[in-house]
Design goal:
Arc Repressor Mutant, subunit A; Rossmann fold; 5 domains; 16 strands; alpha/beta
Length: 664
Amino acid sequence: MALSAQELLDRLDPEQRKVACALSGPVCVRAGAGTGKTRAITYRIAYGALSGAFAPQNLLALTFTKKAAGELRERLRDLGVPGAQARTFHSAALSQLGYFWGATVGGPMPRVSDATRPFVREAARRIGLPGDESTISDLNTEISWAKSFLVAPENYELRAAREGRGEIAGVEAGRVAELMEAYEKVKLEKGSMDFSDALLLLVGILLDNPKVGARVRAQYRHLVVDEYQDVSPLQHRLLQLWLGGSKELCVVGDAAQTIYSFAGATSRFLREFPKEFPGATVVELVRDYRSTPQIVNAANAVIGSGNGAGGAVRLVSQLPSSFPVEFREHGDDEAEAKDIARRIGILAREGLPFSEMAILYRVNGQSAVFEGALREASIPYRVAGGVGIFRRKEVREAMASLSMAARSEPSGSLSGNVGAVLRQLGWTQKAPQRAGVQRERWDSLDALHRLAVRTEARREVSLRDFVRDLEGRAGDENPPETDEVTLSTLHAAKGLEWDAVFLAGMHEGLMPLSYATTPDQKEEERRLLYVGITRARQRLVVSYAKSNGKRAQKRSGFLADVWPQAESKRSRATSYRQRARQAKQDFARDYPDDVPLLRSLQEWRRAKAKELGKPAYTIFPDAALRDLAVSRPQTLAQLSRIRGIGQKRVIQWGEDVLEVIARG
């Protein structure tokens, strides 16, 4: 049943409602991890469509991955708005290139290749550079960076020196510029282009053909950009041309999650949005609905102790207090992996699905030791970036069988019809006991059944529509969940979440990586750790090994403010600061409406302490101020009942305090 415009607003918190109601741009939403940013922008689109502010077909939502675009379209369908388009930057650019190419350029359009390393390898061979995989990989990334920052080969050497990029895989800047020229020649000979070329070519067409830009703007009068902290200068230039002076732009992002600078992403456009668009509506989403207060406090402490996330918001958990964050130290990498596997087994026996657990690490090479420990414990797992579920034989067979069954338009529930088809392929409601090929096959088929159950809980869907949704998911690389533990790098984990997360290998050299030597590089590593922490909903275990078998390893310095210290080594002042910080965070979470009054009381105390030349706590203790802010006494008699104040303070400062409370 479709919701009314008012019913949509009633489902949102106050800040999300501000986003939904800001229907004319420019709008900038600074949204912390877990604060419901996708909910806010999808409801904004739905509310705008239902209230008549704009037509869905005149809006284009831009994301950075096929999966995110697919999820956005699915959410909009659930809200009764199927007409809005959600695409990646590259998909939108390629669509427009294909439409306008014949009239503006003519001839056959180059085919897009997402495998650019062979072109880089051939270019390197032609100019005599090394062709090993690691060198080619680094040079490929550097070419992508240069294009994202609109740096031509002839300007690369100067720009690289200005940015302090140094040698790339041992190749000096002048030679990288030569490689860039050779790379363009190789692509031209092959009749190919890369994804950055698609954006560059469209920018050129829009600049040279004002009528093309006018036609695009007539179609897309409203633009929405998700993950705006990841926009590159090239993408930003394309956005400007799509807008053509219009202000109908809504962007959503989190500066604390800028982790792709190496590929050209920059949070500068998010941070400077109000400068670029004076008078813009700016909304901050800080209510974290994903993670417990303990996890949120750890995330805030890690990102707050750095200086590389300007414009980041400070999260306030909306969940009840739960399990403390665990910090574990191990003798070596193998001991760490075995302990994680053991603890995953315990959680599974307590009823937590394997699909709700993840092991996150910094680099791909770390996965092998965890894979071995999980296999030994007979725990099913999947490595992020491995063979996709839609490429598995049993899933292809299941989709063909479901498509055939849908032709007869069977009656009954969606989950029942899907279950009947899957049972013919060997699926049962009970999972096989042990890990192995049989369990992997069952996991794949069970994922399809669980998706059917979730889909029919949201909306009425026929079997034919479900098959169409599956085909769309396959195209969007948005697979259904399987009941397996996820092993993933921190980069690949962005945008995902689990009930239990094990952050492993958190030692110097890996967090931050040893080659992160500049302040900017180190702050990006800190943001990466922040992303890892905020993937966890209920349980977070952070660990490292003191040795890798060859050399000693030190705990990551990023964890200094959150890793528990032995009481004997912790000073009284440090203990006080930590307790005060925790109390402040707890108060903001539990009594958000009383925070302004507490600040007023603290300002009064600070002024009084300065006037008398005394420490602030001797005027009123912190705990007493918090109690005053909540209870708001109106008489001296009521004030005297607040614990920790006493009659002497009531006589000295009671009237002053009551006046502050009355003003508050």
